[in-house]
């Protein structure tokens, strides 16, 4: 899954630069894996390259997109528009992968009513009403750790089925709910550990 998403990112870049075909060696070079690994990954998706020609960039984007769920449009709400939430709302990279930020919520009156990256920041008190009226599949949680569990539980009760959690806390949610935790501090810790262990 991790590699597919890397291929996908590079293929988008290639398409932007008007490249129409690529072979396994070139694609492997872009993501730092060998060409047999690329061929194995892509043939597992039922994608066959043509000898001497390689793979069609468009066809690969479409196939990998289907597998990664980017072939469809995902509606996403963001809860917590502090420094991180603000930056996420301004990020233009979500839409091309099929993620549409439909609304953002905060409790801070100085944030409520503003529009950031084209998305309106609503009062968190409105969350239940807005999400019930047009349930998104996914939510991004960028609230302080102490508030994350309550917000996550509310989102799940309203039908959200996947949460990207930036709060440094472990959410206890039913197993049917997909949760991906992004903890940048832990990642930095892993990096420091890796640097230390190669010395
Ligand atoms: N800023 C970073 O680089 C960074 C990096 C990694 C992790 N995080 C984590 O992401 C989360 C957000 O970080 P930040 O730096 O943006 O914090 P922040 O304090 O700037 O923003 C948090 C926002 O959440 C809002 N909020 C609090 N309770 C809420 C609720 N119940 N409903 C809706 N909104 C609510 C606050 O009003 C505030 O605007 C934190 O848990 C933090 O630990 C941040």
UniProtKB/TrEMBL annotation:
<dbReference type="GO" id="GO:0045892">
    <property type="term" value="P:negative regulation of DNA-templated transcription"/>
</dbReference>
<dbReference type="GO" id="GO:0051775">
    <property type="term" value="P:response to redox state"/>
</dbReference>
<feature type="DNA-binding region" description="H-T-H motif">
    <location>
        <begin position="6"/>
        <end position="45"/>
    </location>
</feature>
<dbReference type="GO" id="GO:0005737">
    <property type="term" value="C:cytoplasm"/>
</dbReference>
<keyword id="KW-0805">Transcription regulation</keyword>
<keyword id="KW-0963">Cytoplasm</keyword>
<dbReference type="Pfam" id="PF02629">
    <property type="entry name" value="CoA_binding"/>
</dbReference>
<comment type="similarity">
    <text>Belongs to the transcriptional regulatory Rex family.</text>
</comment>
<dbReference type="InterPro" id="IPR022876">
    <property type="entry name" value="Tscrpt_rep_Rex"/>
</dbReference>
<feature type="binding site">
    <location>
        <begin position="80"/>
        <end position="85"/>
    </location>
    <ligand>
        <name>NAD(+)</name>
    </ligand>
</feature>
<comment type="function">
    <text>Modulates transcription in response to changes in cellular NADH/NAD(+) redox state.</text>
</comment>
<keyword id="KW-0804">Transcription</keyword>
<dbReference type="GO" id="GO:0003700">
    <property type="term" value="F:DNA-binding transcription factor activity"/>
</dbReference>
<keyword id="KW-0238">DNA-binding</keyword>
<dbReference type="InterPro" id="IPR036291">
    <property type="entry name" value="NAD(P)-bd_dom_sf"/>
</dbReference>
<dbReference type="Pfam" id="PF06971">
    <property type="entry name" value="Put_DNA-bind_N"/>
</dbReference>
<keyword id="KW-0678">Repressor</keyword>
<dbReference type="InterPro" id="IPR036388">
    <property type="entry name" value="WH-like_DNA-bd_sf"/>
</dbReference>
<protein>
    <recommendedName>
        <fullName>Redox-sensing transcriptional repressor Rex</fullName>
    </recommendedName>
</protein>
<comment type="subunit">
    <text>Homodimer.</text>
</comment>
<dbReference type="InterPro" id="IPR009718">
    <property type="entry name" value="Rex_DNA-bd_C_dom"/>
</dbReference>
<dbReference type="InterPro" id="IPR003781">
    <property type="entry name" value="CoA-bd"/>
</dbReference>
<dbReference type="InterPro" id="IPR036390">
    <property type="entry name" value="WH_DNA-bd_sf"/>
</dbReference>
<keyword id="KW-0520">NAD</keyword>
<dbReference type="GO" id="GO:0003677">
    <property type="term" value="F:DNA binding"/>
</dbReference>
<feature type="domain" description="CoA-binding">
    <location>
        <begin position="69"/>
        <end position="170"/>
    </location>
</feature>
